[in-house]
User: Fold this.
Amino acid sequence: MKRISLTLLSLVFLVGFLAACAGESSGDGEGASGDPITLYSPETPDLTKELAAKYEELYGQKVNVQYAGTNVLVNQMMAEKGNPKADVWYGGGGILPFESAVDKGIITSYIPESAEDWEVVENGIKMKHQDGYYVGTELFVLGFSYNTELVSEEEAPKTWEDLLDPKWEGKIQFPNPAASGTATLMVLSYMMQHGEEEGWEFFQKLASHANSIPDSGSAPTKAVAMGEAHIAIGFDFMAYEHQTKGETVDFIVPDKTPILVNPASLVEGGPNPEGGKKFMDFMLSEEAQQILANWQHIPINPEVESQTPLNIDSIKENAVDLDIDWVNENYDRIRNEWKSKIN
Assistant:
């Protein structure tokens, strides 16, 4: 009996030892893929929660979502560099905050397998970072929302210069470039095409047509939906979100305009890098892309159909080729000059 008991005890010990070893190896050390994933995102909280819930449903792995504005999240990641809390950063109104983050050392290189064969720039649109520091998950178009009860499709502006027509005086809203990344993109893009002197002249006239220049990127489109403005400058999905709620809003893609991917990136030194990579893979999957499409965002996966009139084929001819290096070099300067020249 003693011999049997000792044999059983030895067997129990061996099984426990092997299980412990398996537990150590399955997680590949620190940041095991079964551990929770922390996602930082400035996108609509209900959207990011839906993405997290779908990931949890598919993979049985918890996703903790932390919402804040883009600048707040970037500053938080800077403060956490010694002990990062996030694994993935998704969204920021396009690529500009991510381009700036490369030199800050808060994101690291990872491109999902499904995006490895993408060209860095396709049809004038930068689809991913040349060194893999971010990958596009969807497309945003900068253009004009209009209230269909106040403006007909025929008379709605079709080019940026159309906004200076005297008939729009006191009827336009656009975000404040000193506060909004969406509006900073508008200013930088116009100046790249026309030069700074002509650019400042254009925006001084445009500002004189505005009845309000709010800090929020989405506020002008909301004002159009409420009839407080006839025309607003903003991203396409902002207009289509109001439209799906039954509000009288439609969207015009200007003749030449910035079209950007909205990216995801792996956080440098995050606690769960394997989980972070898996979540980035998921963001390009049909399941995640369908959620983005359902929120009126233009999906980047060709297998998922856009729920708005816009898709990559219909908008690619409108894309302005952005000089990202020039944008990075002049971003802060132009924002500061706006305060002194316009505000």
User: Anything to note?
Assistant: The CA atoms of residues 225 and 247 lie 6 Å apart. The first strand starts at residue 37 and ends at 41. Confidence is low (pLDDT under 50) at residues 1-32.
